[in-house]
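Thread title: Can someone regenerate the structure for this chain?

I was given the following input by a collaborator and told the matching C-alpha cells would be attached. They weren't. Posting the sequence so someone can regenerate them.
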Amino acid sequence: ASEQEIEAYYKANQAQYSGSESRVISQAVVQDKRQADGIAARARGGAAFAAAAAPAGLSAEDVSVGPQTQAEFANLAGDQLAAAAFRAAKGSIVGPVKSDLGWHVIKIDDVRAASGKSLAQARGEIAELLTTNKRKEALTDLITRIEDSVADGASFAEAVASAKLTVTTTPPINSGGSTRADANYKFPADQQPVLQAGFGMEADSDPEVVTLPNEAGFALVAVDRVIEAAPAP
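Best answer:
Regenerated them for you:
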C-alpha cells in the first residue's frame, strides 16, 4: 500500500479512527414538571443525584445511564436533550427538559475524551489491510486471466508460462494419492481438491483451476498422462 492510499483510506474512514467523546450520565424522567423541578433543585443544591431523585420514587438503578456517546444518548433521550447534555460541563445539571417520554433532569457525572487514532497510530493496520486487499484483487485478476486463456484454447504449458507459475508433477499415483514407485510418498493432505480434480479428468481434458481449503489459494490442474489399470508385477 502506498502512502497516498493509506492517507486516502484514513480520511475516508475518519469517523472510525477519530473516535467519539462519551459521557457518564445520570438521568431522571418523571411525568410531573414540579417533581422534575424538585429533582433539579436538590441536585443543584449538592444532593447526590440518586438521593435527589428518590422522593419521586426513582431508585439508583432507575437514574444510572452510564457511558454514552452523543449518538447513543440521542437514541435514548432524543436529539434535543443529547445536544444539551454534550454542551454541558462535567458535574452540570441539565433540565428539566420536556420530551415525549416526560420531563428529564440529567447530571453529567464524567466526560471522557474521544479515544481515536492518529494517522501515524493507524498507519500500520491500514497498510496491512490495504495490502491484503490488493493481494486478493491481484490473485482474483490472475485467476480470471488463466481461466480466460484456458477457455480460449491455451494448453496447460501455455497457461502456466503466461502466468509464470511453478509446475509440480507427481509420480504415477492412484486416486488415494500413493504410488508404487515410492512407499513413503503421500500426496499432500492440504491439496486433496487437486487430487480429486485430477482423477475426474481425462488426459485430453482442459486444465482446471481448483480452490484450495482454508483460503490457501488456488491450483491449476491438468493430467500429464493416464496409466491404465494393470495387474501388479
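The mean pLDDT is 88.
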